[in-house]
Fold these 4 entries.
Entry 1:
Amino acid sequence: MRLIWTAIASSALLGITACKSFPFPWKTEPAPVEARHEETPAGSTEDPARVRLELQDIRYDGWSLRGRLLITPEAGSIRLDKRLIESTALSMKSVTDCSTGRPVEFMVMDVFAKPPREEDVLLLKPGYWYGKDIRLPLIAEAPDRQRGPACIRAEIEFHSLEETPTLIHVRAEIPVQPETEAPPGASLD
């Protein structure tokens, strides 16, 4: 019995101390706006960066989306991880079928990457571009799976090291295979 009361008393004490204002029940006022943590570094008057993204040489095979991602700040500077790890610096937000407008199910991957080393971080200023070939898997390739639709619209999100995410909208189609009259070596009788 004594053990039960000890457990109840310690649980009650733990519950009380979990309250935000324990042991001081009076309210405190929030700090004035000037005293709050700012998003920009101390003493910096630079406006937040606006980022421009382009995806060139787009290739889509029904399983994954590939291309050359180009990044440049239009105003301000950005710091980015040059490795551009998919699902860390880049993530697929949505995919829809061009012909129906219906959402397409796609893979969401969690990648636990090592933090960027000093040599992995690039400070990119307006007028300069950084580019890298990327591959974003959409559907796991397997013999029992059907590949994605012939045409997709995708929304890709880019995350720099300190700025808000930037979206890019991409339209991609599976290339049409040219029809041949007969396979090589076959006769046309």
Entry 2:
Amino acid sequence: MDTFATLYAAPDELIAESDDLRHRLVACMYKYVGEIGKYMAAKDMLDEELALIVFEASKKYSWQDCFKNARIQKVLSAPSVIYFFLTLNAGRKAYLANDFRDNINRIFVEESAAYYADDVCVVHPKPDEAHRLIHLRTIKGLSGGDFEAARGHIAKSDECILQDPPDWENSIYQTFKAAENIFKQLTDDSQLNSAKLDKRFKPILDGKMNEATGRDKRAANRAYNGLKEWVQAAHEYRHDAGDAAVVQPSEELALVLISEGYGFVRWMASFK
């Protein structure tokens, strides 16, 4: 969910912990255990697996008190225990476990936390903090209803990185789709390639830079050439159904292409 805090007040660096992060994680765990009404059983599993003793387990304040002074390692281990607990006990509400995991990841994003939960809700440090910061700033630059689809592609790009193992190719492709979506809004042309950039986007750039200094014009033109090269590079990772098995690019190359792509996406959005 977009809020003022997530769009404009995110910290410059990802955080390892905070009172708000702890509170929201515990509130989420309490809520989902409450969906199946098995507080005591959940309390017993937390005790057995993590030596976390929750007194008066059916009362929300006791959960908060328990986790407030717990070591951060135990706080970050608890979601995987609750996820497992839900898979065992949710019965006809089997969807609750994955819904819980998705909300844990949402909290991590909204609190700018340096973690993510994998498919079974085991919490891991996020890869490459510098990349995470670029991602957050890209999302900020895509605020507003016009960029909802582009934000969705950037979110999917991020989700691909957080998979185990990461789907680098699809992350690059989703970043390209975000750029293509913005290109379409700017030009009414749905196909993004270097020739279309020259024909459709370069005149927009030249018009915007008309009053700029000579230095800024030269820099913008070099950035534009970089955009064209990036588009060509991203095209290498388009994967169609029926293609041969995917060979993933290296993490180092992928992060360069994705991070550069985020920058170009935000730059293109500024022309809207």
Entry 3:
Amino acid sequence: MTWSYSVVLARLGVQMTHESGQCVLDLAEHETRTAEIDPECPHSVLEEVFEVLSGAMEAGLISAETRRPPGERTCLVIEATSIVGVVSSLLPDGMRLFARVRPKVGTARMLELAVLAKMMPDWNGGVFVSESVEDALLEWTIGAFDHALHVLLARGGLRNTHERVNATLVNKVTGRLLVVPWLRNVSRGRPHLVPCEFPSLEFDNPVNRFLRWAIYVGITVARTVTRSDRLVERLEKRDRQFAGARLVRPPSPWPDPHALPANLRHYAQAVTLARLVLNNIRVGVNAGRVEGTSISLDMNKVYERAFCNCIQTLHPEAYKQDEWSVPLLRQSRDGSGAEVAKTMTMIPDIWIDGDQERFPIVMDTKWKQVFRKSEAVVANELSATGPVRLRPEDLYQATAYALETLHRRPSYGNEDITGCLAALIYPTTAVVSDLGREIRVGNARIIIQLVGWNVTVPAENEVREIWSRLTRLALRS
């Protein structure tokens, strides 16, 4: 056998279509694939494979490594992460690799959760949500951005701003004369060319250049990832309207939608969505050629932020990622007492203070598999029955949060705290029963609860039901 990176990719399940010049690696969220590597396979081939997969690895969609269990052949193992989306990269032979990671909750529910997490625009443009993760993400993101640009043009139109301009004028001076460049022109026999710096009302300003670059990124990724002519046509129309601004990559920091000049305040929504486009979409260009594009969404962050935001709508006093400073003491050598040697920080996802009827509640979200039917079930395919596979450190973490709550009673001005509920929130794809245990610490009660969030149903209704169950469980009586 003649070994090449295409042979290894085929063993990983990559579908190759030489007629269209495409290779497709299609994975589910957290899916693992393994390819056995024969001893005669050159090491240079594995290096080529890692180079081919580097785009997806840099985007965080997959991880790849070689493993050699005792007594077995070397294997190449790739694992999809919690980041969903697609990466397009150019291969050495001119073919294009599309690495895709699909969400386990479906694209419609993915977008609902992302909107609740405020990681996607809250926009209702009547878009049909495609089952393809890249089409869904692009249609929603670019559709909202295009709509914001339409509103910008309808409300106030494109505006010029006062910019400092460097220009060489002929036989006149405007603003500040740039002495050194002018003396250089004089020495070359061209005293009539006068370099100056002056204020000017310019369409080619940083905000318009920023919006045009976001439009260009949208056009590029629509062409290379989805090949959606409808998206490309809409964005090309917007690009022509911004043709007076230079097409250059915007430097950092990007324009702040909350700190725009007075005449550009109607730009705020478009700038906000342009920042979202550039945060979620990556385009790599080398020597005028698009070598890689990606659009992705971290479901771990989506899940955490969506749940926290839903809880805050139900209980506005809920603290999101409140930082607790925990001192670590060291005994003095003379035995006179203890002193603070170091401090550590605990950051629970959600903290809700108690009252006269209810214990304090601390919650932490976990985007991982807990409930399963058997070892053969695909990772993160959660079911309503079967043994619990819980990492001990999760229970340690919940117990530590509860104990710290009891320890910090004076800080809350509430010496009457006699218990705490610590809940670990896990995603499920079916209805599951809550699990838990109770620990007595003196007269105090610590309640540890494992709660399944069924992410296949409307999120707000499900979180409301979870909140109702937790508040009943946290009652003092």
Entry 4:
Amino acid sequence: MGAMRKKVYEALIEGVARCRSDDELYAFVRTRCPETSSRTLVRASLLALTDPDLSDGKALCTIYALALKHRLDGVRSDEIDDVGDDDPLDLTPSICSDP
């Protein structure tokens, strides 16, 4: 694992542990790792999602939502297939509630 990905992963875990989510979590990670890219953020998020020691459902949902949101950064709204969607232009994922 690259040093940057590990640093971003640790910032994600710490941010979630401090009850940050969505934009607050992103700002927290960017404060800790200002030179990170969306790609590194998504890869570090996937690493966190596969961590067997991280078992809090809400934390996993928060990290998943952040990864998905930043994975879609490069997607333009006019490229999205809007068949059956209520609001196809809304790219913000929802954060799931506790199971």
